[in-house]
Amino acid sequence: MSPSSPTNYLLSQIEPHALMAFEGRLTLMEVIRGQVLQEPGAEVEYVYFPETAVLSAGAETSAGEIVNVDLIGAEGACGAFEACGSRQAFARLAVLIPGKTWRMAAPAYRELFDRSSALRTAVHKHAELLIAEARQFVACNALHTVENRTCRTLLDLFDRCLGERSLPLTRDTLAQILGVQRTTAVAAVASLQRAGHIRTRRGVIEILDVAALRRTACTCRDAVAFARREIQAADHTACEA
């Protein structure tokens, strides 16, 4: 796996000469499930560009409760906005699905960001997509059943894991992603398992019938997919600050 031919969408958009100049400042890491990469309140030291790993950003309450509010795979990056803004983390960044991710120190990233207009445009589009997703998922949480949302979440992870059907996912983690009680997540998983859509074993949810999950999932996946196509297809460059 080489920085010159990354799977990560944001890295793939950078001009080849600019990416080559920073090749030595990108480190490919193997990360494990549950590994914490960033704590809220800390300075953003690195920007992460997942390749095969899926990272989660968790919002934490004063009582110590955590809800996973964003999942980031090869389509995006973690710390790309904060490293050029407040330079402070406001979410707990952890590894949801183990795999590989590129890491770049924040000062090097800021230098690359200044040099590469293609990266600035790609990051702008990524921010626009995250806003569109957040709006859609607020509506989703209010209007759709937990079973519908569970199917959507499993399919989102299936896509981010490049078609891997065995997802290293506990019911506790699924409940955090859905923002529901563990018992509610367990009931949704049990229903999908009885229907033959999935199979579970300790720490793993295996997708058996992708088509059935797609039929059961809410239409929010289609709405987000449409937004992604429109945003990525736009040929405008990002506005300069």
Describe this structure in words.
There is one protein chain. The chain is α+β, with helices and mostly antiparallel strands and 241 residues long. The model has no long low-confidence stretch (mean pLDDT 92). The protein folds into 2 domains: 119 residues, Sandwich (Jelly Rolls), CATH 2.60.120.10; 73 residues, Winged helix-like DNA-binding domain superfamily/Winged helix DNA-binding domain (Arc Repressor Mutant, subunit A), CATH 1.10.10.10. The longest helix is centred in the middle third of the chain and has 27 residues. It is globular and about 55 Å long. It starts with 8 loop residues before the first helix and ends in an 8-residue tail after the last helix. It has 9 helices and 10 strands. The strands form 3 sheets. Strands 2-6-4-5 form a 4-stranded antiparallel sheet, covered by helices on one side. A 3-stranded antiparallel sheet has the order 1-7-3.
Poorly predicted spans: none
**Distance N terminus to C terminus?**
34 Å
Let me know the CATH homologous superfamily of the largest domain: Jelly Rolls
Q: Could you give the order of strands across the largest sheet? A: 2-6-4-5
Radius of gyration: 18 Å
Strand count, sense and barrel status of the largest sheet are:
4 strands, antiparallel
Helix coverage percent of residues? 40-55%
Q: What integer is the average pLDDT?
A: 92
How many helices? 9
